[in-house]
């Protein structure tokens, strides 16, 4: 989390470092099933399928729909009733897989330049189901790099999308610098 949590809207920022592991204090019992760290945010999924996030809010990467930093786990209301299984985070984007094996994403379009096809130059805290070439496929696993996403389907197919700089997408055509939407990796 970049060494701490910073609050927006106050003249002084709070930075709390912990040199040794420390139990997270929360007003809610978090029976954690899956957890992921982005550049300056954390998203977790409970065994009940609830999704919580906290950290620096920049372009809606926390998923709460407000440009306010969050210093403790906060429930993301948009996921209520969806039964989420797995989470992955990139620098300015996050992904979840539902119990029914659908992939949803949300991103900061201002930093990602439309990485996840939510449109460009706008923040997109509203989750969006990934479609296109993956329509109807069941997602088994997702992992995020800083600017790209890798997805494995239940059939074992590997899809990649996002920024392909330095061959990060695993595609044969290295002239493709950015692929918008999932594409089967070579």
UniProtKB/TrEMBL annotation:
RCC repeats: from-to residues: 3-48, 49-100
Keyword Repeat: yes
A Pfam short name: RCC1
Origin superkingdom: Eukaryota
Cited SUPFAM superfamilies: RCC1/BLIP-II
Transmembrane segments: none
Entry keyword Methyltransferase: no
Xref: InterPro entries: RCC1/BLIP-II (IPR009091), Reg_chr_condens (IPR000408), Ub_ligase/GEF_domain (IPR051210)
Any coiled-coil regions, as ranges: none
Keywords: Repeat
Record protein name field: Ultraviolet-B receptor UVR8
Origin species: Vitis vinifera
């Amino acid at each position: 989390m970049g060494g701490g949590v910073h609050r927006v809207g106050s003249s002084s920022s709070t930075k709390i470092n912990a040199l040794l592991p420390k139990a997270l204090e929360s007003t809610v019992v978090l029976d954690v099933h899956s957890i992921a760290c982005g550049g300056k945010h954390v998203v977790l999924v409970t065994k009940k399928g609830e999704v919580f996030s906290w950290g620096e809010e920049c372009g809606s990467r926390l998923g709460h729909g407000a440009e306010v930093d969050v210093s403790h786990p906060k429930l993301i209301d948009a996921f209520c009733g969806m039964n989420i299984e797995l989470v992955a985070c990139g620098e300015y984007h996050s992904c979840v897989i539902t119990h029914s094996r659908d992939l949803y994403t949300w991103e900061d379009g201002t930093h990602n330049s439309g990485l996840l096809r939510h449109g460009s130059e706008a923040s997109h805290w509203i989750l969006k189901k990934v479609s296109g070439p993956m329509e109807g496929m069941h997602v088994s696993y997702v992992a995020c790099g800083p600017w790209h996403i890798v997805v494995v389907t239940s059939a074992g197919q590997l899809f990649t999308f996002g920024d392909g700089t330095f061959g990060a997408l695993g595609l044969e055509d290295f002239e493709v610098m950015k692929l918008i939407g999932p594409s089967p990796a070579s």
